Every structure is written in structure tokens, then in C-alpha cells.
Amino acid sequence: MVVEAGNAEKFISVMFNLNNAIKSESEHCCKICGDLNEKELFIIAFIGEKRSVKMSDIADYIQAPLSTLTTIVDKLVTNKFLLRYNSNDDRRVVKVELDRKGKASYKEFKNRREIMAKKVLGHLSETEQATLIANLAQLVTSIKL
């Protein structure tokens, strides 16, 4: 497929601006969700979706070694965002779930995500929303190739 003259540069410019907008929103969200960094917030969001998660599953999700994850989780446990415990089924398996502050952060994260989605989709018709979502999904697939 041929890319029309000038479209490649327009695309890169729009993607750069989109990336900056997402980064800015992410930084704001991290701050209001408990002064977390992005990786910590991703971990809390992942656990919030699953309720109780094995440490190895979190390490796979954030694509980090278990030793790195242990350091992050230690900090989040100390700061009352997470609870860590051994599985009843297999004492070798370490699981993590949200503590009180983690639940509050996860709730705020979901709220911010909904606000952002409404900002973007709110002025579009249902058809336009579906088209945008499909095009973005296709874009993600194309970038991964």
C-alpha cells in the first residue's frame, strides 16, 4: 500500500502529540492515585482487575524479573497499597491483593480512565466511536508487526 506524500509526517506528528497527551494524563493519574510511579499503578490496576494474583503472573504482565517485582511490591506493602501472603494451596506460591490504599487507588484509576474515555468518545456518534475503536485496535496490531 502506498502512503500519500505528507501523510507519513502528519501521522508521526499526530502520534507524537497523542503520546504526549497520554503521558501527561498518566502522570496526573499516578499523582492523584497515591503518588505512585507508572509501574506501581499498572501493578495495582492489574491486581484490581484480578483480585488476588500470583507474583509470577504480575512479573509476566509487567515484563520484569521477579527480583525487580519483589522490590516494587515490598514498597507497596510497606505503604499499605498491597497485602502479600502465601497461597493456602501451595505455600511456595506468593499471592498479592489490594490493601485499603490500593483499593482507593484502583477506584481512582478506574474513575480517571472513564473520564478520559468520555472526553474522547463523548462528542462522537456510536458509529464514529466504533470506527475509532476499530481503527485504534488495527493501529496497535500494525505497530506490533
Automatic annotation (TrEMBL):
- Annotated signal peptide: none
Q: Which residues form a coiled coil?
A: none
Decide whether keyword tRNA-binding is in the record: no
- Domain (HTH marR-type) spans 8-141
- What are the protein's UniProt keywords? DNA-binding, Transcription, Transcription regulation
Classify the source by domain of life: Bacteria
Pfam families assigned: MarR
State what protein this is by name: MarR family winged helix-turn-helix transcriptional regulator
Organism for this UniProt entry: Mucilaginibacter angelicae
